[in-house]
Amino acid sequence: MADQWQEAYDFAVQVARAAGAVIRKAGEEEIKVQTKSCTVDLVTKTDERVEKIIIGSLKEQFGEGTHCFIGEESVSKGQPCILTDKPTWIIDPVDGTTNFVHGFPFVAVSIAFAVNKEIEFGVVYSCMEDKMYKARKGQGAFCDDEPIQVSDVKDIHKSIIICEHGTDRSPETVQKIFSTQKKILCIPVHGLRGSGTAATNMCLVACGAVEAFFEIGIHCWDIAAGAVIVREAGGLLLDVDGGPFDVMSRRMVSGNNMVIVNRIIKEIEIFDTVRDDAPIVKK
Ligand SMILES: O=P(O)(O)O[C@H]1[C@H](O)[C@@H](O)[C@H](O)[C@H](O)[C@@H]1O
Ligand SMILES: [Mg+2]
């Protein structure tokens, strides 16, 4: 049953586009900002509304009960964040909420679909740029229906690397993040960048605009769709310690080839995070 999930893939593209239109419209109105885990972890009514629209449409299309859902805002309200073998949608309704709040024009809808814990397809709609990135396992990666490919640069000195700062502002963590960035910048590389959305960053790796993107502290909904897009564009993903990529681990290096990725890994100062699927400890 080679094309078992084609309908779901096509539908995800449609849903992401519609969700992006809602975000664009909401960006023209007054945005009320609230916080989640800390004062720099922002959320808006649009994040919640768009997640409801996406999950509602998917349930209507595929039937309640047959598919599982992991959505950023549902998890923050206490829904489980466990990836099982069942068909599971992994959704970030607004990746780049801080950008959205500030009018910084990189905001993405990220929708991934996993079966047997493997990501079958991913859709990232960069809604302010109106760019639709998508990939299905074994079928290549696309931006607006044009095939995309990672860069062929092997010399780290000729690379651009994306790194983000995340939302953990403890001085020890910030120190490690800046120390890592300083070491990479001084290799030297051509430049460091960051769009403020992990999903978009991964698409920038996939289309060859940058050579690598790494982050500790991201969540499965930030990177699940991007992961299959990077792989299908010829890139690779690893854990920040060089081990296998684990979508629930909150750590990831994505890049165009092993030479670049291994060189980045050498410089990363790792700090602790709690896995997305860790049991919730009641206080
Ligand atoms: O919370 P949203 O969905 O906007 O996503 C996160 C980004 O994707 C990260 O790369 C980024 O570093 C931030 O942690 C940001 O929170
Ligand atoms: Mg996100």
From TrEMBL:
<keyword id="KW-0479">Metal-binding</keyword>
<keyword id="KW-0452">Lithium</keyword>
<dbReference type="Pfam" id="PF00459">
    <property type="entry name" value="Inositol_P"/>
</dbReference>
<dbReference type="GO" id="GO:0006020">
    <property type="term" value="P:inositol metabolic process"/>
</dbReference>
<keyword id="KW-0963">Cytoplasm</keyword>
<dbReference type="GO" id="GO:0005737">
    <property type="term" value="C:cytoplasm"/>
</dbReference>
<dbReference type="GO" id="GO:0007165">
    <property type="term" value="P:signal transduction"/>
</dbReference>
<protein>
    <recommendedName>
        <fullName>Inositol-1-monophosphatase</fullName>
        <ecNumber>3.1.3.25</ecNumber>
    </recommendedName>
</protein>
<keyword id="KW-0378">Hydrolase</keyword>
<comment type="similarity">
    <text>Belongs to the inositol monophosphatase superfamily.</text>
</comment>
<feature type="binding site">
    <location>
        <position position="95"/>
    </location>
    <ligand>
        <name>Mg(2+)</name>
    </ligand>
</feature>
<dbReference type="InterPro" id="IPR020552">
    <property type="entry name" value="Inositol_monoPase_Li-sen"/>
</dbReference>
<dbReference type="InterPro" id="IPR020583">
    <property type="entry name" value="Inositol_monoP_metal-BS"/>
</dbReference>
<feature type="binding site">
    <location>
        <position position="72"/>
    </location>
    <ligand>
        <name>Mg(2+)</name>
    </ligand>
</feature>
<dbReference type="InterPro" id="IPR020550">
    <property type="entry name" value="Inositol_monophosphatase_CS"/>
</dbReference>
<dbReference type="GO" id="GO:0046854">
    <property type="term" value="P:phosphatidylinositol phosphate biosynthetic process"/>
</dbReference>
<comment type="subunit">
    <text>Homodimer.</text>
</comment>
<dbReference type="GO" id="GO:0046872">
    <property type="term" value="F:metal ion binding"/>
</dbReference>
<feature type="binding site">
    <location>
        <position position="92"/>
    </location>
    <ligand>
        <name>Mg(2+)</name>
    </ligand>
</feature>
<comment type="pathway">
    <text>Polyol metabolism; myo-inositol biosynthesis; myo-inositol from D-glucose 6-phosphate: step 2/2.</text>
</comment>
<keyword id="KW-0460">Magnesium</keyword>
<dbReference type="InterPro" id="IPR033942">
    <property type="entry name" value="IMPase"/>
</dbReference>
<feature type="binding site">
    <location>
        <position position="222"/>
    </location>
    <ligand>
        <name>Mg(2+)</name>
    </ligand>
</feature>
<dbReference type="InterPro" id="IPR000760">
    <property type="entry name" value="Inositol_monophosphatase-like"/>
</dbReference>
<dbReference type="GO" id="GO:0008934">
    <property type="term" value="F:inositol monophosphate 1-phosphatase activity"/>
</dbReference>
